[in-house]
Amino acid sequence: MNNTGDQNTAAAGSDKIFDHVATSLLPTKHGEFRIHVYQPLGESVEHVAIVKGELKGQEKVLVRVHSECLTGDVLGSLRCDCGEQLDAALGKIAAEGLGVVVYLRGHEGRGIGLANKIRAYQLQDQGQDTVEANLALGLPVDTRDYQVAAQILDDLGVRSVRLMTNNPKKMKKLADYGIHVDERIPVLTAHTPHNIGYLRTKQQKLGHMLDFEQE
């Protein structure tokens, strides 16, 4: 696939840092999508774009940039709301008929990896919150970078986005790589006894835009 949109290309991080390696149709419970696989140069990790409709040249495209979460996305863990956010995003894109989920591998546990995330869970079981647990392990709170997401959106021809996120830092980081964010779309999920503490910490310490007033 060829990069489109000179404005985005200039700001999305100079030289292309990935190869587009595979694509096919992907039938899901939300309908049919097209899946694209991207591999960063010199790395084994593979990122995914799950696309609905023809995005080339489109503006204000509905977009979810989703960080890999094995426990939430695959195993249905109630510690987080990641799986619910992914499902909600695919459903909303399917209903609109146009959009993309950029699924970033290597972002497990806000970038600390699966084993370290499980170690952090153990500390959370002992009373620490998600931020405290990372720091107690000598790990950063969040190491995620979104350059490849910006370049994938550029490769797909997306000119501007309506970003489905509760995280204003994600909006800023994408903007820093040249992705124009027209609007933030909140991602609303259910709060449970298992994830309410985690979500409150994300609101209070990480700046996520979450509303608990209706509880």
UniProtKB/TrEMBL annotation:
Protein origin, superkingdom: Bacteria
Q: What class of enzyme is it?
A: hydrolase
GO annotation, biological process: riboflavin biosynthetic process
A Pfam family that this protein carries is GTP_cyclohydro2
Pathway(s) it belongs to = Cofactor biosynthesis; riboflavin biosynthesis; 5-amino-6-(D-ribitylamino)uracil from GTP: step 1/4
What is the catalytic activity of this protein?
GTP + 4 H2O = 2,5-diamino-6-hydroxy-4-(5-phosphoribosylamino)-pyrimidine + formate + 2 phosphate + 3 H(+)
| Keyword Ribonucleoprotein among UniProt keywords | no
Instruction: Give the keywords, sorted.
Output: GTP-binding, Hydrolase, Metal-binding, Nucleotide-binding, Riboflavin biosynthesis, Zinc
Q: How is the cofactor bound?
A: Binds 1 zinc ion per subunit.
Q: Which SUPFAM superfamilies match?
A: RibA-like (SSF142695)
GO cellular component, as recorded: cytosol
MF (Gene Ontology): 3,4-dihydroxy-2-butanone-4-phosphate synthase activity; GTP binding; GTP cyclohydrolase II activity; zinc ion binding
Q: Per the UniProt record, which EC number(s) apply here?
A: 3.5.4.25
Which residues take part in binding Zn(2+)?
C69, C80, C82
The residues that the entry says bind GTP are R64, V65, H66, S67, E68, Q85, E108, G109, R110, T130, T165, K170
CDD domains for this protein: GTP_cyclohydro2
The record places domain GTP cyclohydrolase II at 22-186
Its biological function?
Answer: Catalyzes the conversion of GTP to 2,5-diamino-6-ribosylamino-4(3H)-pyrimidinone 5'-phosphate (DARP), formate and pyrophosphate.
Give the record's family classification.
Belongs to the GTP cyclohydrolase II family. In the N-terminal section; belongs to the DHBP synthase family.
Q: Which NCBIfam families match?
A: PRK00393.1, ribA
Can you say what this protein is called?
GTP cyclohydrolase-2
Q: Which gene encodes it?
A: ribA
